[in-house]
Amino acid sequence: MKYETEKLLIQSNYAKFITFQERESFYLKQFETLKKLELPERLAFLATIGKNDLYFLLTQLLKRHDLRHQWLYERCNEVMNSPNGYLDLWAREHYKSTIITFGLTIQSVLNDPELTVGIFSHTRTMAKNFLSQIKREFEQNILLKLCYPNVLWKNPQKEAPLWSLEKGLILKRKNNPKEASLEGWGLVDGQPIGKHFSLLIYDDVVTKDSVNTAEQSLKTTEAWALSLNLGAKGGKRRYIGTRYHLNDTYQEIINRKAAKLRIYPATHNGETTGTPVLLTPDILAEKRREMGAYIFGCQMLQNPLADEAQSFKETWLRFWSPEFSEKTSTIYNWQDFNRYILVDPAGEKKKNSDYTVMLVVGLGADQNWYIIDAIRDRLNLKSRATALFNLHKKYLPELVGYEKYGMQADIEFIESEQEHYNYRFPIISLGGSIAKNSRIKALAPYFEQGRIYLPKRCPFRGYDGKWHDFTEEFIKEEFLNFPVSTHDDMLDCLARILDQKLGAYFPTNTEVEHKNKNEFSENAETEYNMLS
User: Fold this and answer.
1) Is 31:38 a contact under the CB 8 Å cutoff?
2) Which domain of life is it from (predicted)?
3) Three-state secondary-structure class, residue 269
4) How far is CA 71 from CA 75, 91, 102, 266, in A?
5) What does the radius of gyration of the chain's CA atoms come to, in whole angstroms?
6) pLDDT, tens digit, for every residue of 205-241?
7) pLDDT of residue 254
8) 116/170 Cα distance (integer angstroms)
């Protein structure tokens, strides 16, 4: 009988089966042969196949018949052959947690009962839910316990040294580490201290609530980085999740090359019009309607910046060079513009606060908007006032518009500085009831028409002492990412040029000629005095 069992094991090489139907057909034939064997040999055969065939383990021993689908069959084979070191980003409701966190984890501890597994989710409650599913299987699946009596307890509640969601599950093992065989922990609300797991599993460490602000995203990322110390030397990691934001922790994992990316959207090409890989076209279309473009792009296409969600296109960008002009009678090519300074202040000078943005925007007689100069930095009150005075003295704007939500704290200090330096200029507050995103989206038609020009380069030294290029940061961090960018302060500040209270207007050709004449006279007089 032992010979027959070994023969069946050799024949059961799953790699030769292309479709799940072929594999299941083979299993049915072998089950007929198994009837001739004694019960221990039958169980030994099932146990060996379960340890080497994840699809069999899930669909037969764990009774997950809902996985009987070609796409899921292929995913089972893929993650079993390459289980560790991957960031698996799959569409919502595509069985990623069932296959990896549930099935693959069970297969791993059945193959190696000495493993210590730490399951981490955004909160500990979420991690306990994953652990609870495994716990119930080890308690209630009689066939599984019969197949693996050397790993699983017959009555774990009474026999196991530890058997709770709070402290973990200990399986039958020879060693006695301080870590349980399986434990569930929260990434941001209660990481363990002094533990080192041989296998770290991260499932749903990013949630909708964890990406509402840049600070929340940073908190999750820092918690993830801290949790890496909970891995044992030479340990393995598995990441499973779904995208929520362009700059979420998963993106940081990708940027740091902490894991290899394995991504599976809901369609064959990752586009809304693509062929669904698992769900029916009707169900996927319904989700698209219910979720909206952005959520659908994140959750189902694994693309936080799907075309439908993007408000601004790279092809809309136009550039110019604010500089000295030898061909005209003006010293600078922006002097014939109607110039305005826009200020969007932020909080105190600290790394996790928003930025203060100051823009010098010129309106030309050609009916276009030109960004002449800009600052985007983390500035305290004194630094904000200094920057504003410097810009005003250099560009002599028609008006200064100040975001009213940050103005009250600043205006008293700025007025005192005006008294101190005997240099005064009016400031008007810009507020209104229009939502920020709506205010920013109002810029779209002007960008699309090619009427907003950015400087080719706009260097400034930031609070960190490094040189930055405002134009580069504007494009990469906000323009191309809106409405899912981590920050939107530059776009919001620029949108204030459309505020009716500011009253910004374009100069006429007559006004431009008058400006040029006056400025030429002033410049000529200055040059004459210098020569004298």
Assistant:
1) no
2) Bacteria
3) coil
4) 6, 13, 18, 11
5) 32
6) 999 888 877 788 899 999 999 999 999 999 999 999 9
7) 95
8) 9
